Amino acid sequence: MEGLTLSEAEQKLYSELFGTCDVDHTGRVSGTRASELFLASQLPHDTLQQITELCGATRLGHFGRSQFYIALKLIAAVQNGLPVRLDSLNTGGDMPLPRFVHIKGTEQDKKRMQFANAGVSHHMSMEADHYTSPDKPHHPILERQTTHPGVLPPPPSSRGHVRSGSSGNPPHILHSRQHVVSEAASNNLPLQATATSPQDSYSSSPYNTSPPTTSPPSQRRSTDRHHSGPAATAAATAKRSLFDNRMEVQWTGQYGAAAQAAGVNTADGWVEFSSSPASQPRSLGPGPGGAPTDSEDESDPWTITQEQRDYYTAQFKTMQPDLHGLIQGTTAREFFQRSKLPIAQLSRIWDMSDVNQDGALSLEEFFAAFHLVVARRNGYDLPETLPQALMPKSTQPATEEDPFAGAPPMAGGGTPPVPATAPQTQAAPQPAPQAPPQPAPQAPPQPTPQAAPQAPPQPTQQPTQQPTGAQGGSKSADENWATFDENSSSPSPVVQSPANFDFAAVHPDPASKIIQPVPVRMSPEGQTYSDYRPRTFSEPIPTDVVNLRRERSGTSPSKHPKSGDTAEFTPGKIAPPPPSSRSKSAKSSGKHPAPQPLAPPPAVPPRHVSPATKGPKVVQQNSEQAMPISPTPKTTPNNVVNFITAEAAVPAEGLKHSRTMSLDSKAGSAFRTKWTFRRSVSFQPEVPLATDTPPTPPPRPHDQTRDKAEDTPVEPPTKPVKKKAPTPPPVRPRNRHRSGEDSQKSELRQEEPSTNDRRRHVSAPATRVPPIPPPPVRRKREDIQAAIRAHKERNTVLSRTNSELQGDLAEATEERVTLELQLQKLKPFGVTGL
Amino acid sequence: MTGQRLSKMAVCVAVISKENYPLYIQTIPTEDDLKFHYTVHTSLDVVEEKINNVGKTTNDLRELYLGLLYPTEDYKVYGYVTNTKIKFVVVVESSNTALRDNEIRTMFRKLHNAYTDMVCNPFYTPGDRITSRVFEKVVNGMMLQDS
């Protein structure tokens, strides 16, 4: 064959025509059939003869595919005024398609035409993008369709047609248009019916593919249709509707014979679908409802006609008897998989039609999905978003991530009017049989979508709430920090709900710097310095508190049976028995060195005052923590007094004590208590016996320092609490300075301050970063509270220490007395001896 | 494009199944995809570590948002794991300091919602690669600020 270049449109049209003519599937078109077709082109016989010769059919005696194509192209060329020569074939790529005029007399032609059109249009092309026919051929189609759009006739753009569905249209269209014009009304019906019929058939038929069976039904159907008016036989596919009733009538007769074969050939899947009894509803509806529907159909090819709606409803009922109910995803999946569309497309259809994203289809959603599937089967491309016409009436504005770009929340409002009116108008003319079912489906669909939307609104709201919740959550999370520190040491932040992960309390960024509230078990005391280091506090105040705590812990653990015990100052974290507390404090102290360099912010001044005020409490706490052992009430007052005195005398001292405790305010107060224990323990041994109460404070710092030092190495893994430790230390050093104690103290002080400062400096930058996000105000409050707690702890520790020292003092005094007595006894001897 | 860089939210978004194979990875086109794929792959270790640790310490509800998994010189990697062990990993630029933790959480929430919506689709088999356009739209929406 000569090099024949066919455009897409031409290719499709030609193949359709060839298919139409080649009813025997022999791969050739007999001369008679071809001549019939060619005659339809209204070319003179001579021309046709020439064409036949040129294409080589004469030689072969029949039209092979290539010959057929050549002939067609030649016809087109001739129709356009080009000479009948092979050269014409390659004249231009934009040669219009051959036009075949339908000749009434030629039934076969009609059939063929119809088939050509039908087959073409109805070819179930799953994949779009096949057809890229030029616009020209489409125009007629479009025009035709404008008269009765809505129904799903051959896709206007029929991009998806594998076969030149639309290509088959042009010739058909020209012809049909005439008819259309003359019989718009009837055509409308047929169109509509046709459109619906394929759908119906498609949907109803179990997607089987038995061409033969279809023909009789189609024939029947056409008969029915004919009766009904539009007589759009499904088998013929939408195209058929184009033809007026007369044609159909004629067709019917012949259709049964020839149409079947041809029709079957081209409209494989379609035929079957159409054959299904589902067409019945169609036949009912089309006639009466045709006109009104058409008007709507014209507006939007996606509008579901009443007939379609009824059919869909029937299908819905097969799966879900309750029209208000939902079809579950799996059920729907099986159902739609019968359509033989690729899963990817079905998935997209689902995405679009499941407006409320509930994994199930309500009646309205089902309509939309079904309609989309039908459209796809007809060759329409799937839209990117759900068309307005398909949006469930009472659509709840999809989810916030509305995939239906074109259907914002308002879409629900906009759409309802259209579909609502449509069904109503459709319902009006509908005959009785449909009336009852229609109102029912009409009503239920509306309530159903409404019901469904109600569910969606909730989920929709939830997402919206989530963001707000998240927002709130995040804020609360920040606040939670403080609470965390104070209350629970649980690492997992508050999780209000699985969805609200916003404030997962765990802030990764700050985590590095900002200590998790985890209660600081500051063991600190002994190691003021070490404590300092690890504490990377971001809050100034806490450091003070920590200091306090350290002191307390230092004193308490050891053996402060005295002071009453009020564990309460650490609400949740009352230190456990001394040993554990000791260990804890040790731990905390150990931790101090480990943790990040929290900058113990200065915030010292206020501290000074607090310890004093908290004296009593602290004492009590100290005692309690120190040991359940012997609560010595008597000592308590002493301690208290001492403490207070000490505090008063050297407020700084107290602070110093707490220095090592860099307990963060957030840290559980328990830590503080522990510190207290620790402190007391450490203090005691080191407290010089000679010291009086007043002097005790001075030595205490020393002890504390040492304790801390001891503790620090013990417990390396300090928790975040340690971070707070640094803060107290800074306080202490300052205090020390103020107190101006003995050399040791001064040394310590100096060390501390320097260390603290160092640490502070180091940690400062680190802490600075994280605190940024949390509101400073809140922090201050927390800090103050933390400071208060720290002070209390410190007080306790101090009181314990005090009591211990007093005990030592008493012992020392006793010894002294004893020694003196002995001396006296001895003296007389010596004296007397002499 | 440069102008948009600063406003970009995420540079790479990945969804990993519970068997730790990728269900979806999307990077901004101008970047080297392979590098991000590698980054996401290495971040899986950190994710595993976090979810295992949390499980040990607390028996109660595990936090879904894992937070910053690890920062590299140029990027920061955030993680989020659902209760079904589906992991979401988001890579953002380190230079994007304006990106607050809250915004990251919002991002993950959106991803999670989009994922659940997609799972509701009966035509999606969990474990398949994600091809949902809706989901892609959500992801693209968070990768480019202006989209």
From TrEMBL, chain A:
Regions of compositional bias (Basic and acidic residues) in chain numbering: 128-146, 700-711, 738-757
Organism name = Branchiostoma floridae
Pfam families found in the cross-reference section: EH
Q: Name one GO molecular function term.
A: calcium ion binding
Domain (EF-hand) spans 341-376
PROSITE patterns found in the cross-reference section: EF_HAND_1 (PS00018), EF_HAND_2 (PS50222), EH (PS50031)
Ranges of biased composition (kind: Polar residues): 273-282, 632-642
Biased composition range(s): Low complexity: 201-218, 488-498
Q: Which residues form the EH domain?
A: 10-98, 308-397
Task: Report the coiled-coil segments.
Answer: 795-822
Q: In which residue ranges is the amino acid composition biased (Pro residues)?
A: 430-460, 594-605
Q: Does the keyword Coiled coil apply?
A: yes
Q: Where is this region: Disordered?
A: 128-174, 193-239, 271-300, 393-780
- Swiss-Prot/TrEMBL keywords: Calcium, Coiled coil
Q: Which CDD domains match?
A: EH
Would you tell me the protein name for this molecule?
Answer: RalBP1-associated Eps domain-containing protein 1-like isoform X5
Automatic annotation (TrEMBL), chain B:
Question: Sorted alphabetically, which Gene3D superfamilies does this protein's record hold?
Answer: 3.30.450.70
The highest taxon in the source lineage is Eukaryota
One Gene Ontology cellular component annotation held by this UniProt entry: perinuclear region of cytoplasm
Q: Which Pfam families match?
A: Sedlin_N
Keywords in UniProt for this one? ER-Golgi transport, Transport
Its localization reads: Cytoplasm, Perinuclear region
Gene Ontology biological process terms, A to Z? endoplasmic reticulum to Golgi vesicle-mediated transport
Coiled-coil-forming residues are none
| UniProt xrefs under InterPro entries | Longin-like_dom_sf, Sedlin, TRAPPC2L
Q: Which family does it belong to?
A: Belongs to the TRAPP small subunits family. Sedlin subfamily.
State the name under which the record lists this protein: Trafficking protein particle complex subunit 2-like protein
Which species does the entry assign this protein to? Answer: Branchiostoma floridae (Florida lancelet)
